[in-house]
Write a structure and sequence with these properties.
With about 400 residues, the chain is α/β, with parallel strands linked by helices. The protein is about 35% helix and about 15% strand. The structure holds D-malate (MLT). D-malate (MLT) binds next to loops.
Length: about 400
């Protein structure tokens, strides 16, 4: 008789954003006239930029002609895209990343979830708390999380609280983790680490032999000089870190799907016999076996993001969302709420008023304001007492959401 992976039975009934969608749909079914403003999942609303659209049309034409047709592409991604990434995202910032250290994929969610395939089950994992739930759930699936305690923490995961009390800067752990997930600009708090703060983590990993999984899916929102876009801006990071990037939030590819991971050739793990093993080689082996590459059409669209037109158009869209973030932040602060994040990031992290718990405040916002957010507790125990709103809706809806929340008596 076949057996299932028991670890899946330890997970909550559904993934956070599926649960949020279920609740919103149930509310909508019960209140069909409610004009709900969705600020829950970080899905974009602006269309693809013209440069990407044009490139996709052309790529479809390529696929329609035998002389330009592309079937399976290289599992690591087409050279035209990897070269553009190496040039624009790295060399332009003074970082040398070779195209064969770049692995194009269908999303940072997949990459941050799949990376566990090449890590031993016995690794001790650390996450910031609150955290993007994919990091925790995939480690539960992989058998690295242990058991869920009454405090909402998995007993084999090291939680690094990021709250208003520590200025949303995680403290270096006393108990040394083997693997550390960092996401900056941060999802869900919308806060950032400056160069010195990130350097502390790289130095810690170098000293202790830990691996940093650095998710920089939101780097395009950075406007401050002192906030690093890439962990490889920090000396020595290529020996300890894998970086994940995505075109989803940068260029509106949540529906198109294209992202990439950087696995430097200077990064080595250790096998059970103490031998050094190239992480770049392991990830290539994994991807070639389990993945057939992002589509040619998506990759052509992604490459167009790096043309002068594409860069200007995507910057304009990011500026639009940053204006939404500022509108949320300022408007809600003026309403007397304690608001964090939303600078160099598309997420605004709001302290719930009068000690109302996160899920209750989520329900209140939905019911009284018809604004759908995400309860902070869904991101981890230290998210209790907060709610997250995204800046990805339209400007008009953002202004309207602020107006509705301000009209609410807490
Ligand atoms: C979020 O809302 O946290 C993100 O959109 C989720 C994701 O990118 O998968």
């Amino acid at each position: 008789m076949f057996r299932i992976n028991d670890n899946f039975c330890k997970l909550a009934e559904s993934y956070l954003f599926s649960e949020i969608a279920r609740r919103i749909n149930a509310y909508k079914a019960a209140h069909p006239d409610a004009d709900i403003i969705r600020m829950g999942i970080g899905d974009v609303t602006r269309p693809l930029c013209a440069a990407a659209v044009e490139a996709m049309h052309k790529a479809v034409d390529d696929e329609a002609d035998a002389s330009t047709f592309h079937g399976y592409g290289p599992e690591q991604g087409y050279p035209f895209l990897r070269d553009a990434i190496a040039e624009h995202d790295y060399r332009a910032r003074g970082i040398e990343i070779a195209p064969d250290e770049i692995f194009v994929s269908d999303g940072a969610k997949s990459d941050t979830g799949n990376i566990g395939d090449i890590l031993a089950q016995g690794n001790r994992v650390a996450v910031t708390d609150p955290v993007y739930p994919v990091y925790v759930d995939t480690n539960v699936m992989g058998g690295r999380a242990g058991a869920l305690g009454a405090d909402g923490c998995w007993d084999n995961i090291i939680y690094l609280p990021v709250t208003a009390q520590n200025g949303f800067v995680p403290a270096l752990p006393a108990e040394v983790p083997d693997v550390i997930y960092l996401c900056y600009p941060n999802n869900p708090t919308g806060t950032t680490l400056n160069r010195e703060q990130l350097k502390n983590w790289v130095d810690y990993a170098l000293e202790h032999g830990s691996l940093i999984l650095f998710d920089s899916a939101y780097e395009a929102f950075i406007r401050d000089e002192d906030v690093p876009h890439s962990i490889y801006e920090i000396e020595g990071a290529e020996k300890v870190a894998i970086e994940f990037r995505s075109f989803s939030k940068t260029a509106g590819f949540t529906g198109v799907r294209c992202a990439y991971a950087v696995v430097p050739k200077a990064l080595f793990g250790t096998d059970s016999e103490g031998n050094k093993v190239s992480m770049n080689h392991l990830w290539l082996r994994r991807q070639c076996t389990k993945f057939n590459g992002a589509s040619y059409i998506s990759q052509r669209a992604a490459a167009a993001v790096y043309t002068p037109e594409g860069l200007a158009q995507t910057r304009e869209t990011i500026d639009y969302y940053l204006r939404n973030a500022e509108t949320l932040r300022k408007g809600l602060e003026e309403a007397g709420l304690e608001v964090y994040g939303g600078v160099n990031a598309p997420y605004v992290w709001i302290k719930t008023p009068a000690g109302i718990d996160s899920w209750k405040f989520f329900d209140l916002l939905l019911d009284k304001c018809h604004v759908a957010g995400t309860p902070g507790a869904g991101f981890g125990p230290s998210g209790e007492g907060y709610v997250r709103l995204t800046a990805f809706n339209t400007y008009e809806n953002t202004v309207e959401a602020v107006k509705r929340i301000r009209a609410m008596q807490f």
